[in-house]
TrEMBL record:
Keywords: Amino-acid biosynthesis, Histidine biosynthesis, Hydrolase, Methionine biosynthesis, Multifunctional enzyme, NADP, One-carbon metabolism, Oxidoreductase, Purine biosynthesis. The gene is folD. HAMAP family: THF_DHG_CYH. Homodimer. This is Bifunctional protein FolD. Residues 145-287 form the Tetrahydrofolate dehydrogenase/cyclohydrolase NAD(P)-binding domain. The keyword Amino-acid biosynthesis applies. NADP(+) binds at G172, R173, S174, I238. GO terms for molecular function: methenyltetrahydrofolate cyclohydrolase activity; methylenetetrahydrofolate dehydrogenase (NADP+) activity. Residues 7-126 form the Tetrahydrofolate dehydrogenase/cyclohydrolase catalytic domain. It comes from the Bacteria. GO terms for biological process: L-histidine biosynthetic process; methionine biosynthetic process; purine nucleotide biosynthetic process; tetrahydrofolate interconversion.
Length: 292
């Protein structure tokens, strides 16, 4: 039986973070001393979703660790669109805030796209605004969504930088992962199949994948017999059940067939956080008009 390589996301996330730190160092010497500016990431959190609280705190902690200012703006579940919009507008015009992230999901009564599109697209470090999505899909430079960016870095580490011609199957079509992931892989020359819960023959489709990316949030539902031998399996799902974290992938059965597999936790999650830092420093370079 062949061996499956378990991909250490924390390792590659640390590498990305080192790159971010050196970029911060460079920018600080060029700009901050003379203009007395600081670098900042603002995070907006609405409501009390337990998972969101954890992620938001993780992001703010990491941001501070590497030398960003990071403020979390908390709103109650009952907050109005107008209150959130006013906060975003203040942050848009604050020169010491380079990145703004609105944690999702937002409460039902709030128009998510409207809120996201209030964020100045050059501070939209999630890359979810209509304008950034348009840039991405027309293959222009943009702030790209963090999780797909992190997945691409892992794929490059595993398979090399040329992944053109590979068959990629993506489960899930969310704004955060599925849709931008498909767009990025199409641009890289992959043959991309997008699946959702209504798709026919999901298992057979998955079995055609050289690269299988799952972002469904359904604990352990992808089994070993869904996997092509030697395939690269990227697990983006993360759900907590009875205090234990589960991905979409049934780890033990899939590792017997796959060539490469990202674990949960310790796979894609840490890459997402590092890519958020990368987007924040990229946004700062753009805002200060410094060459990347
Ligand atoms: N506007 C917005 N942007 C996001 O990027 C966004 C969001 N909303 N809403 C929720 C999801 C989820 N998400 C994760 C980030 C880090 C980990 C992460 O660091 N995971 C660790 C474990 C963390 C733990 O112990 O709970 C790991 O997989 O090793 C997981 C999930 C970002 N999201």
């Amino acid at each position: 039986m062949q061996n499956c390589e378990i991909i250490d996301g924390k390792l590659y996330a640390a590498e990305v973070l080192e790159r971010v730190k050196s970029k911060i160092g460079h920018l600080s010497t060029v700009i901050c001393k003379t203009q007395r500016a600081t670098l900042g990431l603002a995070v907006i959190l609405v409501g009390t979703d337990a998972a969101s609280q954890i992620y938001v705190n993780n992001k703010a902690k990491k941001a501070k660790e590497i030398g960003f200012n990071s403020e979390v703006y908390k709103f109650p579940q009952t907050a109005t669109e107008q209150e959130i919009i006013e906060c975003i507008e203040r942050l848009n015009s604050d020169p010491n805030v380079n990145g703004i992230l609105v944690q999702l999901p937002l409460p039902q009564h709030i128009n998510t796209q409207k809120i996201i599109d209030t964020v100045n697209y050059e501070k939209d470090v999630d890359g979810f605004s209509t304008y950034n999505v348009g840039l991405l899909n027309s293959w222009q430079d943009s702030l790209e969504p963090c999780t797909p960016q992190g997945v691409l870095i892992l794929l490059h580490e595993i398979l090399g930088t040329n992944i053109s011609g590979k068959k990629a199957v993506i489960l899930g079509r969310s704004r955060i992962v599925g849709r931008p992931m498909a767009s990025i892989l199409i641009r890289k020359g992959c043959s991309v199949t997008s699946l959702n819960s209504n798709s026919y023959n999901i298992k057979d489709e998955c079995r055609t994948a050289d690269i299988l990316i799952s972002a469904v949030g359904s604990p352990s539902f992808i089994k070993g017999d869904w996997i092509k031998k030697g395939a690269c399996v990227i697990d983006v799902g993360i759900v907590k059940v009875n205090d234990k974290l589960y991905g979409d992938v049934d780890f033990e059965s899939v590792r017997k067939v796959a060539g490469f597999l990202t674990p949960v936790p310790g796979g894609v999650g840490p890459m997402t956080v590092s890519c958020l830092m990368l987007n924040t420093i990229k946004a700062a370079y753009k805002q200060y008009d410094i060459k990347w």
